[in-house]
Structure formats: C-alpha cells, structure tokens
Amino acid sequence: NMAQRRNLSQSHQSWTDDLPVCEMCGVGTAPNCVYGAEGAGSQSHTYEDAHIRFRGEDGCSLYGVFNGYDGSKVANFASQFLTAELLLGQLATAHSDGEVRRILTQAFDVVEKSYFESIDDALAEKAHLSNFLPRDGVGVCVLCVQSQKVQERLQELEQEVCGGATAVVALILNNKLYIANMGTDRALLCRSSSDGQNQVQQIGRAHSTDNEDELHRLAALGVDSVLVRQAGQIAGHRSTRRLGDYRAKIHYSDTHLLSSAKAKPIIAEPEIHSQSLERVSGFLLLMSEGLISALESAHGSEQANQEMVAMVAAELAQQSNLEAAAQSVVERVKRVHHDVYVSGRQRAPFCGQHEDMTLLIRCINYPGPDPPTPTQGGRIYPVSVPYSNSQSTSKTSVTLSLVMPSICTLTNGTNTTSALEEETPTPGSQSPTTTLQSTNTHTQSSSSSSGDGSLFRQRGSQAAQPDETGRVPPYVDFSHFYRLWGNEHGDLPSDLTSAPGGLGPQ
C-alpha cells in the first residue's frame, strides 16, 4: 500500500515534469531561523514550503506558493497534484469565467481527497495499533516490550500522516488573472499607470482566526468564535482553511475548540477572485505566510504591503534577472527581521524567530532592467543603501549591484550607478520616498497613500565610465550626512569640506 501511494505521487510528478517553466517569473526562498541570545541564527526544521510556476497551452499559466507545516509532505503533494489537475488539458480559452472558477475549486477538492486517500492506510493502521497500548496501568509489565514497539511504530505513522499546508495560487487565462487563496498566504498585484506610477492591491484576505467572515462561518457550525479569536490558533495553526491536517479534519471532535462543531469546520475550499489584465503593466507577488509575518513582526502590519512592493520595485530596477530580484527581496526581509531583533528596540520581542519564506514574482508587461555586462570572469557584489520608512526608525536597504571584474580595473554594471539619496518623509506619507541619481539622469520615485495601495516609481540609469586611473566617480551623496554631523558636533573634518561636491573623501 505504501508503494502504491508512492507510485501515485511519483506519477503526478512525472506528468508535470515536462511542463515548461514560466520565464517571466522569479522565486526567492529562505529557510526558517531561530535567533540565539547573541543574534546567531539556527534552523529549527527542514524547509517546508513549495511553489509552482508553469506555462501551459493556450496561453494558460499557473503559479502557486504552498506554506507547509509539520513537514513538507502536504505542500509538495499539493504542488504536484494541483498542477496535474489544472494544466493537463482541463482548462481552455473557451471556458467562461464561471467555468474557470468551478474548475479551480474542484481541483482543490480533488487534491484534498487524493491526499487523504494516500494516507488512509496509515491512518487505519494507526487507529488499529492504538488499541494495543496499555490502559490505566493494566498489564504494563507484561506488555512493556510489545508496547514499546507499538509506540515506535505509532511515531513513524504519525510522521507519515501529520502536517498540512495553506496555499495561494494564481492562474492566468484569456488575459485574466484568477487568484485562489486558501489560508494565510498573500497575493499582491502592483499596477503601473500611464503616468509612470504604480499602485498596489491586496487580493483577498487571510483565512485566519481574526477574519470576521471566517469567525461567522465557524459560529454557524456551532464553534465558539470568541474562544477561537482568543486562542489565535486552531490545532496549532492560525489558518481556518488548509489542505491536509488530519487532526483538524478527521479528528476535529477531539480538538477542544472544534469539539462542538456540527460539521467539518476546517475546510480546503479556496476563495477565488478574478480581474482582467487588459492594459495592465506591473507585477504579481505571491508570498508565503512566513515572509509576510517576518516583515510585519519587524515593522508592523500597517505598511507591510507597500514596503514589500517598494522592495520588489527597487530590486527589479537593479538586478539582472527575476530570480536574483526575488532572492534579494527575501534576503532583505530576513536582514530587516534580524536587525530589529538584535537592536533591542520596541519590536525586538516579536522577532525572535521566523518561518520559511517564499516569494514569487510574476512580471506583467513590466519593463525589467538591462542585464549587467561585466568583463569576462567578473562577479557581482551587492551594495546596500538605506531608504527611509516614515512609520519606523529602522532602515531597509536597497541593494545595488557592483560588477567586480577579474582584472585590475573597476567598472559598474548597467543600471547600477544610481545613487539613493535619503529624503525627509513628508507628514502623512505612508511609504518610502526615494530619489535615484546618476551622472546621466535624475528620476524620482515617490510613494503616497491612495485608496488601498500606494504609488511609486523607480528606474535605473546608465553606467558611469571609469577615469584614467580606473576609478568611477562616487555615486552616493553623503553631503546631507556631513551637514548634520557638523550641526551636531560643531565641526567638520577638513578632508570632508574640501571634497568636490560634498561627497567625502575620494
């Protein structure tokens, strides 16, 4: 039976192996981390997230981020089976909006049922072996050896059947975007307007213990929603919709918060949203709960969406490809989270650890940066420049790329010579304002509150050329810093005041 389940999973995986990967998509990941007293981090469990990014036939593309917990089995299972249920001929351009929604919902239902079928024998064996455990101390001495073997086997079975996953899935068909959200992951759509500004929109809400609609749904089933809100978790997780997790699905009556439910309270039904992509230019972000929670723990939840999109826009303007941009954003969030913890500031107690992080970026008619052109044998090194966050005293970096050739000269890659000059945020501004400068162009990126999102724009610039000594002109303007230093300390070193353009030592 175990072999049959393994073959079933492998068959679905082999069916999807031949699907082409979407080239307009990049993914960044980072494993979970727990910080020690000195800020050193260690991984507490294996990486449990999964993702998909496939391009099917008839212009149909499928993307997804799956946040696994208590193991990666359900996340991996869902990523393989859901792809097989959607991209192997089930969807066509002739399908109406209602039909696409029905197929998406049905696919999640099939994946859920298939998963529980795959662990059905293990669950049955687990229930059977539980009957052989000694009860109330009767026969403990006689059965101690047998009991130990039963316990060991039960632990093996528990590892095989435990765990679950949440998911956020994006489907693009007929130039229309469908978002199927189930759980606590997040989808953001950033639109670029004709005047060069972008607006960010969160698509759907998290199905969590503080979602009013979900609490009403649970209350209608007889669950005490007040206790659920107070607990903040159900069977060890804050999501009210999830894939797998037999304890919350099959044995929910054994869970204190769910014992009064008249029907299955934790469901695997996605909430589906759709909108046209006609004349849309921008990018789509799919984020695992771990990535969202890390940023919100460090800087608060009020501006997390705007800050995330600002980071992505900055990296898209600087990195050579989408994969590098996505990974740089994840690394930056990880860095911000760690820095807040070691700082000991107000939010430090919330940043003692973070879960696995996954970010998927899908560009939609969005102009990407020109690739860097290092000399042969060169390597790219990141250089971080902070920008201001008006909601927090902490700093978040914009990573610029410097190309370091293997020979003695130093050159800058294309789109990497921009300077990021920090400005004082205007009152009421809710997101970062940055200025990009170079020797050739001066473009501005601004952000302001507008409805459910924020507006901003960033562009790269042409590379500066090295002079006869092999050096490039300095591109970070520290004059504002030096003026502040002089105002606070009453003096300014002579080697700084004599620097051309107030840029400091050359």
TrEMBL record:
Any one of the GO CC terms: endoplasmic reticulum membrane
Low complexity composition-biased segments: 425-454
PROSITE patterns per the UniProt record, alphabetical: PPM_2
InterPro entries, alphabetized: PP2C (IPR015655), PPM-type-like_dom_sf (IPR036457), PPM-type_phosphatase-like_dom (IPR001932)
Any one GO BP annotation for this protein: signal transduction
Entry keywords, A to Z: Cytoplasm, Endoplasmic reticulum, Glycoprotein, Membrane, Phosphoprotein, Ubl conjugation
Stretches assigned to the PPM-type phosphatase domain: 34-364
Protein name listed in UniProt: TGF-beta-activated kinase 1 and MAP3K7-binding protein 1
Organism expressing this protein natively: Periophthalmus magnuspinnatus
